[in-house]
Design a protein that fits this description.
It contains 21 helices and no strands. Helix 2 (about 35-40) crosses helix 3. The protein is mainly α and about 425 residues long. The protein is globular, with a radius of gyration of 23 Å.
Length: about 425
């Protein structure tokens, strides 16, 4: 008879948290036995069992094997890295126990506990506790500095720009959180001004991407904290394009997160004003937010004007705001406006995204389903919507689009089994 899972007690042993995460991916996600996992990574089953129960730590060289075998998208690796840092903090605290009254010790302890709270919440799929994110991100703002390989961190930022297209909603939260903590620690040390500025740019973009992920899973409160941290770091760096990007990106994300329309427009207007008309990815995102809000309101003139402004950004800076971003937003606006150009924009957008793109393409398929329903291709539209929603997590964007599909159904179609299934998939607790 299998041994029942032990309760996770990260304060007692951080390895319990790693073990619980491995068990979750094995049992709940991959649905495989201990024996099967052990065979996949060529190790004795008793060792894997001890890892899961937190009795012994997972060797560092086995973490990548577990991530690959469980198809965990580097989440185990991110958690392991954070746990390792926290264990080091605990070791340093034990060595300097006589100095626990020092201010630095109190701050370190607070950050350690906040990180533990976040990690525990993330591993359990729960919301981030209030106050935890603020504490973790406190080191991202400019205080002190240190020497490092900034090139590596800048490459990491560029990597996230690509990877975010290839992962489902929320999948990057553990990685981003761990990286933000690491960069925050570097910003607390003493580095040359040029290095400090580059680190601020890195922290701003990492915090912005974390904020977008949090918005997309529906944790608007935590997202606001991360957005504020991103703005502070961007503004402190003196990089105006980056400051525009943070505000434009927040406007772009806030349109899905239940923010009032006027607040979305305020964010977009702030980005547009700050840009001075210089084309950039942030300016494109701001115009995208304006176009979608206008389309939802049925204001065709304002929507078309925003799309034209967005097209100009793509024409002048295609490397910053690629054409697939433009076509995605065209498809959305034209569909909501009932404009005949919706179908061609959808086709162009779908053809332009890189192979392997996940969330944006899935959302385009939902927009396409909405277009089908509006054209009274009810069965085909509902079938496509269900297929898409069953393929991944229900983000705020997907929830919004599914809701519009249901609104577009004629009254008699609401009784269809597919319509009931769609409604059931989008019900939020």
């Amino acid at each position: 008879m299998p041994r029942p899972p032990q309760p996770v007690d990260p304060e007692e042993s951080l390895h319990h948290l790693i073990g619980a995460t491995i068990r979750h991916w094995r049992q709940e996600v991959r649905k495989i036995s201990l024996t099967e996992l052990a065979k996949m990574i060529y190790i004795d089953v008793s060792q894997v069992s001890k890892w899961e129960r937190g009795e012994i730590p997972v060797p560092a060289h086995r973490v990548a094997d577990l991530d690959e075998a469980l198809q965990a998208g580097r989440q185990i690796a991110a958690l392991y890295a954070a746990v390792t840092e926290l264990e080091e903090l605990r070791a340093r605290e034990r060595v300097t126990v006589e100095d626990t009254e020092a201010a630095g010790t109190d701050e370190t302890d607070m950050k350690r506990r906040a990180a533990l709270q976040m990690l525990a919440a993330l591993s359990a799929g729960a919301a981030i506790p209030p106050g935890a994110l603020e504490t973790v991100l406190s080191g991202v703002t400019p205080d002190s500095i240190d020497q490092m390989d900034v090139d590596r961190w800048e490459r990491t930022v560029h990597e996230y720009r690509h990877v975010c297209l290839m992962r489902w909603t929320g999948a990057l939260i553990p990685d981003l959180t761990a990286d933000i903590v690491a960069v925050g620690k570097l910003l607390e040390r003493k580095n040359p001004p040029s290095v400090h500025t580059r680190l601020l740019r890195v922290s701003a973009e990492l915090s912005g991407r974390l904020a977008a992920e949090l918005d997309d899973i529906g944790d608007r409160r935590a997202a606001r904290v991360a957005w504020a941290s991103a703005r502070r770091a961007a503004d402190a760096s003196g990089d105006r394009d980056l400051s525009v990007w943070v505000r434009g990106y927040e406007a772009d994300q806030a349109r899905w997160a239940g923010c009032p329309d006027h607040l979305v427009i305020d964010l977009a207007d702030e980005a547009i004003a700050l840009s001075g008309g210089k084309p950039s990815r942030g300016l494109g995102g701001a115009y995208a937010a304006c176009a979608s809000i206008a389309a939802r309101r049925g204001d065709k003139h304002a929507a078309i004007e925003a799309l034209q402004n967005m097209a100009e950004v793509t024409d002048r800076a295609p490397e910053a705001f690629p054409e697939y971003f433009l076509r995605w937003n065209e498809a959305y606006a034209y569909t909501f406006l009932g404009d005949g150009r919706a179908s061609s924009s959808l086709d162009r957008a779908l053809a332009l995204y890189p192979p392997g793109t996940m969330t944006p393409v899935a959302n385009l398929r939902l927009i396409q389903a909405l277009d089908l329903v509006q054209q009274r291709e009810i069965d085909e539209g509902l079938e496509q919507a269900l297929t898409v929603l069953q393929s991944g997590s229900i983000s705020t964007t997907r929830h919004h689009l599914a809701g519009r599909i249901l609104q577009a159904l004629p009254e008699q179609a609401h009784k269809l089994p597919a319509a009931r299934d769609l409604r059931a998939l989008t019900v939020r607790a």
